[in-house]
Structures are given as C-alpha cells and as structure tokens.
Amino acid sequence: MSAALRTARLSRLRTAMQAQGVDLLMLAGNAWRTDYLRYALDVTPVEGAAIALIGQQGPLRLYVEHPIEAARLRHEAPWLEVLHRADYYGQIEQALAAHATGRLAAAPASALPWRLAQSLTRDNIVNTTALLDQLMVEKLAAEADQVTAAAILADGGYEVFASAARIGRCEFELVADTEAWLRSEGCPENFMIMGSGGVEVRGMHPPGERRIALGDLVTTELTPCIEGYYAQICRTLVIGEPSKTQRDAYAVYLEALEAGIAVVRPGATHADVARAQNDVFRRYGLGDYVGPEYTRVRGHGMGLYVDGPHVLEDVNLVLKPGMTLIVHPNTYHPAVGYMVLGDTVRVTETGCAVLTQTPRALRAVPANAKESS
Amino acid sequence: MRRGLMSWSPEEMPAAQLDARVRQVQALMNEHGWAATLIYTSIACPGAVHWLTHFTPYWSEAMLVVLPTGAPVMLASLSKRVHPWMREVAHLGELIATPHLGEGTARLLTERTPAQSCIAVLDFDALPFSVAAPLTRGYAANRWANASMLFQRLRTGTDAHELALIERADAIARSALQSVPSHAATAAELGGAIEAHARLAGAEDLIQRIAPDLFHPGSLQRIDGPQALGTCYAVEVSLAYKGAWVRRVRNVTRLSTPQSLEVDKQWARADAWWAQSIASLGAHAAAHARSDPPGMLQRWTLEGPGNALPLQSVDSAAQPPAASASRAPWAVLSAHLRLDGIDWFGAAPIRWHDYRYSPFGNASSLPA
User: Fold this and answer.
1) What is the CATH superfamily name and number for domain B160-359?
2) What's the CA gap between A66 and B308, in Å, rounded?
C-alpha cells in the first residue's frame, strides 16, 4: 500500500468524522471483517480480533487480542501504536473511559464486541457503519486502480484454474493450483468457491474431494486481492464437448450479463442492473430461478470487501464514477445445473469499463487435455 | 483466510465422538440449570462449533443452540442452497436458515425453552453487537450466563481423534516447510511453493508469516509482495487440517561455509534451549520453562484449544499462565529469540504423553 493512499483514506475518514462531530471513532475487525480496519489504518487482522481508536487527530491506537498478531502488526505498521494485554477488553474500556466527555462513534455492528458496545451506554454514541460503508463504496481513483490491478490477477488465476480442471482431479487440487499461483504472484488473500457436476449441483462451496468427470460443469467464483482490494471473476467450463442443452442454457447467462453491464453508468441503480439481468431470465421462462428460492443476488460492490448492498431489484444505491462492482447472473438452471458468469466493472463518467478480460464464451476443456505447465 | 479442502471423514472424526462432546455440554447445562447454550461461529471464531459439529462457515455466520437433550440446532445466515453441502461436511441436526441471526435465535429460544430461562452464551463478551442486541432484546432471559470458563474445561480432556487430526496437520506443515526450494529468492516464490505443497496435501487453511532477513531484528510478518529474502530467513506456517490448527517454523540459512558455521552454532544453542523448554513445561511453571534463553527472548506464546479461536493464547509475556495451560493434552508453543547478531524462531505443536511434553512428529525443529 502506498503511504499516499493510506494518508488519503485516513484524511477522508477524519474529515467525515469532523463533519459528523465525532471525537473518537472505534473500529472493530477480525479475520472475517477486515475491511474497516484496512480502510482506516491499512492493517489486516488474520487471527483474533482488533479494535482501533481513532481521534480527529493524534496517534492511531490499535488494540490487538492475540500476542502473535500484536508482534506482527507492531513490525508491519509502524505508523500505529499497537497495544496488547491479556485483559483485552479491560484495556480498551480503560481507554474509552479517558474519553468520557467526547462524542463517540463505532463500526461495524457485525464485528463490534457486545461487551464494548454495552460499555458505550452514553447518549452520544453514533453508529457509523453507514458512513464508513459510503466511504468504501465511493472510492478514490487510486482505490479503483487497485481493483483494476486485482482484476488482472483474477484473469490470471482463472487461467490456472481452467488449466487445472482435468478428469480425475479432485476439486481441492484445482484450488490448490490456483492458490499457489496467486501466492507466487504476491496475492495475500483470495475468496474462492467452486462447484462441479451436473444438474444436481445447485450452488458453489469450498472445494471438496469430488473428482472431476466427463461432462461436468465446473464453476468458480475467484476473488483475489491486491493491497486489500478485491476483484472477482465468475466463469463456467465444461469437461468435454458441451451439449446443445448446456450451450443453450449458457446463452441465457451471457445475454443476462451483457444486459446487466449495458445499464451500468452514473445515475443507474443497483436495482436497474439486477432488473436488466433478471428480465432476460424471465423472458426465457426462467423467472423462478432468479428469486429467493435460488440465487437472487445479481452482483455486489468490489473493494476492501463486498462493498455496500448487493445488486438486487429492491436496492436503490445510485452508481457514481469510480465505484467498482461485479455483475453476475449466477444461478441454477433446471436443465443443466448451476452456472456462473460474472465480470468486474468500474463505473466511468459515461458508462463503465469492464475490468475482466477473460473471454465470456463457454469454455470446453478437451476430455484428454493435459495440464499446462 | 483462504478456503482449501473442507470435508468430513467419519473415520477421522466419528459422529459418536461429536455426539459425546455435545453430551458433555448438556451435562454442564444440567449442572448449572441452563436451558440452552448458544455458541456463535464465523470464519474468525470457529473453534467451539467446529469441535462440536465439525462445521466451519466459509462465509457469513451461524449460531449453534445446544438444548438439554437431543442434537443441537444450527441457525445459519448462509443461503439455504448450501445446506446440502453443510450436511456433507459436518454432523448437524436441525438446520434453520435465517438472515438475521440474533432475531432468529431469540425466536427459537422463545419456542423451545421455558419462559425466562437462564441461557448460557459462549464468549458473550465477543458476540457481535449485530447479533447480541436483537438477541437480548428479543428474548427475556432470567439470566444470561457466560459459559466460557466452564466450556474451556471441557477442552482439556484427552481426545484421540483430535490428537490424530493435529498430528496430520503437523505432518502437512512440516512437509510443506521442507518443500521450500533452495533457490527461492522472494517471499512470493517461497509462499507459492509452500501453498502448493500444503494445499495438495489437503490443508484447509494456511497462514504464512515470514521474517525475511534474520540478521535484521524483526518479527514474522505477513508479506504480500515480492520482497527479497535475505541469506538467512524464517518462515512460519499456521495450518489447519479439518479444523485442527498447528504452527511450525523453519529457519533457513543459505550461507555457505565458513560463514554458516557460526549461524549453525547459534541456532543449535537455540534448538537445545527449545527442546529443554518443551520438556520442562509439564514439570515446572511456564515462567521457569522460558528461563535462561541463549539470547534475548522477544516473544514466548503458549496456545491451547480455544472457545472461539482455534488456538488461544494461554501464556505469553503479557499474561500469566492460565490454570488450564498446565498439562493440557496438547498445545502449540512458539518463541522468538534474538541471538548474537541473528534471530531465531521456533513453533511446534506439543502433546502431553508419558508425564512430559514432547513435539508431535519426530523432530522438535526442522533442518535449516
């Protein structure tokens, strides 16, 4: 992470705090929700929890639950005061008590520990989850550039995945090849799920021991990150020659993706993007498969996490230049099984730039293909 | 966090063993008059729920509700379409999809427990606000009890299946570290080799930390980019196999003789101290075990099975040893020494056997 981007984000955050009259901001994070701490302080907890206390000015303090993480973060983030004590909560409560008169804010509710939330019983507590979400969704150009870089990594990762998909290999071996390549490219994190099989497959999940077989649809949602910023690619391939049924089904997803991307521009909403995709499914009599019984999420923001609200027909988030999101009409098809197809895009002044470069065509892996080195 | 192989083999972890663990919780509930025990899980805090069900959410969150009898009920914020997969990789009873975990749990308690019961919550302090607030608003408990200390006691029993999984995790970790290519020049190159080896061997998760140059005082770091490795470096892997976590370190020197002789000599002293520390852990207080190091002790951490975290610190420079730390069936010990001009790191899972601690596997340290 460049020091300039780190400084720019913190400055933006502190400006927002001032505008809301917030004297002290408490941000929580853990290995699942790293995004708020990453945004404010450029740190990523990988084990245990951490809490940051950020004033409008002055030192940045990070309280870390696990001693191994404390040792790591002291070294990795010299711009922070990293504190660790066995009495993790007691130490933070003591620090909060020293700010008894100021206006406090806390976020996100999904990672804020109950004990600390309870200790904040004053009337002047503000939940700033929405404020932070807005900062993360409406990105600086340098942040969107990082998503663009991550999209290149996602394209490369998919090539490795597709090359690894061979008859007889286990699902987890495909993921192992992909993860190893991503790590060798300097990628610290990757969210990845997959599926393999036929009409019985209704979704994706972490890899198991199932062996790839002739005729399988092999799906993946691959999401590497660079400097904390994620980009995603969703693709489906077929082992062997795709059947006509598989090709016809896939054509619907391709049309839906193109329809969704076509409406991405400043002023359009998440609802518009979702509706454009779902209308295609409805036109082909597949409306049931884009509802809650199957998969209704037609995409989501991409950034330090799944940014902001999902792309759904009832979400009226207005798109602005610099926002980055994935458009993905992923769902179950009754004739062939679960299919996925999705590209990461960046909203521009006049429309959007498609960041994903991998061809959208249904890829066929020859049944006798050998792995490329 | 990176999701690798997630699967459940009843041969490795029999359903009967998981059921027996649930019955231990139910006995505790009976003893204390708890109408239910609530255990929250996410990928950040999977320890206890995995121990009881073999389930770790790869995404989102879930709540396990243990009632006085029968199989626990799991409420999960994951989509219904992954329920078949959840059942495939875990031993679950009733499974309920709920987008709002706090409200859903309150509703279940209202339906399944007597009014105004005493409800135990594991790690109540750490429960996310987004779950705890609607839970405590939606169910009028007579008392919310924090079950953490009592539950921790259950984890100190010996469990051959758990030990076997740790042994497997350790074997994968050691083998991955030994696969480090001698020509690796960057952290990314090193990381890629370890990742490939560990994941193809079935690692579920893998965290790598690297000290890139042991001649410069530092710490094990998460290095994202193509940072160059020094002539002496250390790499630590924290690795999970089917929910069992271990840590292992390898100190590597690429010096040629005669420069390597001095490094070898210093590291040999560190290795001897390390072996002695492990051996004396069971016989003496932890403070004694970490005494007389051959250099400056920068960090010492003893971890045991945790409620939330798979590895929970029970003794470090910042905390007194917990009572449960002494003679637990297994633990993970790690340390960082600053020797004369060069650093040394150690980490290994250890087990209590024949009245003493010893490392899992054959060797206490890995070859340089």
Assistant:
1) Creatinase/methionine aminopeptidase superfamily (3.90.230.10)
2) 12
Give residue-wise pLDDT tens across range A279-321: 999 999 999 999 988 999 999 999 999 988 999 999 999 999 9
Domain A3-135: which CATH class? alpha beta
- Subunit contact B2:A190, Cβ cutoff 8 A: yes
**Is A223 strand, coil or helix?**
strand
What the block records as the tokens of B159 is 């469990």
A264 close to B (CB below 8 A): no
Task: Tell me which of A1, A26, A32, A104 to substitute to probe the interface with B (most B C-beta atoms closer than 10 Å).
Answer: A32
Each residue of B161-192: pLDDT tens digit? 999 999 999 999 999 999 989 889 999 999 99
Q: How large is the average pLDDT for residues B140-157?
A: 89
DSSP string for B270-316 = HHHHHHHHHHHHTTS-HHHHT-S-SSEEEEEEEEEE-SSSSEEEEEE
> Between chains, do A183 and B191 touch, taking CB under 8 Å as contact?
yes
**Separation in Å, CA of B258 to nearest CA in chain A:** 31
Range 104-133 of A in CB contact (< 8 A) with B: 108-115, 117
* Contact assessment for residue B235 and residue B194, using Cβ atoms and an 8 Å cutoff: yes
Q: What are the backbone dihedrals phi and psi of residue A84, each rounded to the nearest 5 degrees, phi first?
A: -140, 130
Structural domain boundaries in chain B: 15-154, 160-359
